[in-house]
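BUG: 3D viewer hangs when loading the predicted structure for this chain

Environment: internal workstation, default settings.
Expected: structure renders.
Actual: progress bar stalls at 90%.

Input used:
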Amino acid sequence: MSTETATKANSAAPPGRFARFPMHWLGVVPFAAFVLLFLILPTMKIVIGAFQTADGGFTLSNVAGLFTPSILAAYWISIKISFMSAILGCLIGFAMAAAVVLGGLPRSIRDPLLTFSGVASNFAGVPLAFAFLATLGPVGLVNLFLRSEFGVDLRMLGFNILSFWGLTVTYLFFQIPLMVLIITPALDGLKKEWREAAAILGATNGQYWRMVGFPILLPSLLGTLALLFANAFGAVATAIALTGSSLNIVPILLYAQIRGDVLGDPHLGYALAFGMIVVTGCANAIYIWLRARSERWLK
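Structure tokens produced before the viewer hung:
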């Protein structure tokens, strides 16, 4: 019997014996179950509910209801808040990451910054809203201090924590750390040989960044901007806990439609959630595409 024939004979499963389950897949079973129960199935329910009537029939009226003036205005305000917090988060986060990676700061500063960024990027919801109300609210610590020591009232200057800029500033608490976490590996990927080659060819520091550094980082920057936009647009708990019903944004309207009041329409709420899924899905798709392009340069 040849070696190949013997190998095939040994590898053949004996009759009546069940094939072994690949044990190395057991490690991802909890993750797969979590994704199925808390991501895929709820998303399918939202998508199906957006095209259903109260009695289960098919309809397009729920999606058509998204184009009413009040809902379009809510989407527009949400988009503006998300875009503004993403822009500011990118600028401030990039400056912090560049100072740590390229500015020659000691390791004792970089490690705590990255650790704090990992924690702060996931700090949202009611605790974050309470923290900002206690700090920048009408009777918050900062407002009381400025009023008692300097006679300055933030509300008289036009700042209100329950407004457009108040929610934008609150979102920055988790937008900036997320930017730091994502852009730091991209900055670490800039090779010293590129800067040295540019210097040998007579390029100044500004020319290096304009012609080499920023073009390489641009896909990462734009991709992170799209991710921060999606992150802010999908932040429901923080917006509801902070502003309640004082700001007409999509998460507030969504909460009002599905909480069970007499005037609520759950299927319109499904349509609102479906619109949020479309917006955040497009932003995440842009991020994934740009991230893949940047990784080709940084390999």
